[in-house]
């Protein structure tokens, strides 16, 4: 008897087939974009595509050579970098909250590990526009309204970085 049978879990929830992988990844992408600011767990991701946590982990390792949560943290860091580079005057606490990080320390540590600089260093090093004042409130509101597009764009560029890698 299979372990999944002893738990009364349908086989469809424990494994994935290679031909279904693109659809599963697309569903996961949509789920992560829709919930990027929330506290997403491995259980949440596995329930979103109705496969086991172990099958989900194998799927991510096969496609991204990373664990699902590390991939999600990296995606969030890339989104945060893109938002910071928009130079909208948002406080870093707002950026990390928008991107789903719960801890400023975790955000800063992971950001520094990913991009070899802290978020505050990136913010300081931006080329500021020397011309007149900007309507920061309007720009911030536009970001909040267009956040889904920013997230989608960051996701596409982050995924493209895996497609451009040569196999090891």
Question: How does the SSE layout of this entry go?
Answer:
Blueprint: H1 3-6, H2 21-34, H3 42-49, H4 53-64, H5 68-85, H6 92-98, H7 104-115, H8 119-125, H9 136-163
Helix pairs in contact: 5-7, 5-9
Give an account of the 3D structure.
The structure is a single chain. The protein has helices spanning 3-6, 21-34, 42-49, 53-64, 68-85, 92-98, 104-115, 119-125, 136-163. By secondary structure, the protein is mainly α. The protein folds into two domains: 3-68, no CATH class; 70-163, no CATH class. Helix 5 (68-85) crosses helix 7 and helix 5 crosses helix 9 (136-163). Mean pLDDT is 80; it is low at 1-14.
**Tally of distinct domains:** 2
- How many helical elements? 9
Order of helices and strands: HHHHHHHHH
- DSSP strand tally: 0
First-last Cα distance? 37 Å
- So what's the overall shape? elongated
Helix content: 55-70%
**Could you describe the largest sheet, including whether it forms a barrel?**
none
What percent strand?
A: under 5%
SS-based structural class?
mainly alpha
Radius of gyration, taken over Cα atoms and rounded to an integer in Å: 19 Å
User: Mean pLDDT across all residues, rounded?
Assistant: 80
The residue ranges in which pLDDT falls below 50 over 5 or more consecutive positions are 1-14
